[in-house]
């Protein structure tokens, strides 16, 4: 079975680097993008199992990107990451299914890994179940 591909989208290079370090050597293939357009270009080139997007970016917010991903790539899990959980749009995105989960900035490494493993595991179990029926 191939490693799950996780796409991380954040306009801050330091955040992208920190997340890559946190996930390095794990069961994931990690790719990064600095904005929504670059993320969609990655989707056009390769399969992505899970996308983790920052909420507040200069070239559009994470919820807007995740809405596009949900429509064009519905099998991809969608996660929003932000330091602002109280953001009304984040809460709405969680309730309307735009994203499956919220990750808090700053993150704790073990909790981040466990959350991503759970999400990828649920997705793979659902796909396996669909194929068996």
TrEMBL record:
GO terms for biological process: phosphorelay signal transduction system. Keywords: Phosphoprotein. This is Stage 0 sporulation protein A homolog. The modification 4-aspartylphosphate is found at residue 54. PROSITE patterns: RESPONSE_REGULATORY (PS50110). The lineage of its organism: Bacteria, Bacillati, Bacillota, Clostridia, Eubacteriales. Gene3D superfamilies: 3.40.50.2300. Residues 5-120 form the Response regulatory domain. CDD domains: REC_HupR-like (cd17569). May play the central regulatory role in sporulation. It may be an element of the effector pathway responsible for the activation of sporulation genes in response to nutritional stress. Spo0A may act in concert with spo0H (a sigma factor) to control the expression of some genes that are critical to the sporulation process.
């Amino acid at each position: 079975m191939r490693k799950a591909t996780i796409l991380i989208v954040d306009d801050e290079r330091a955040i992208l680097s920190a997340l890559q370090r946190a996930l390095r050597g794990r069961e994931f293939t990690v790719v990064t993008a600095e904005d929504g357009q670059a993320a969609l270009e990655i989707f056009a080139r390769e399969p992505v199992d899970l996308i983790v997007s920052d909420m507040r970016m200069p070239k559009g917010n994470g919820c807007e990107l995740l809405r596009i991903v949900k429509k064009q790539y519905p099998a991809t899990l969608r996660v929003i990451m932000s330091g602002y959980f109280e953001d009304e749009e984040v809460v709405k995105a969680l309730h309307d299914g735009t994203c499956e989960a919220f990750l808090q900035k700053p993150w704790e490494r073990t909790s981040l890994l466990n959350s991503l493993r759970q999400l990828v595991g649920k997705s793979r179990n659902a796909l396996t179940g669909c194929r068996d029926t």
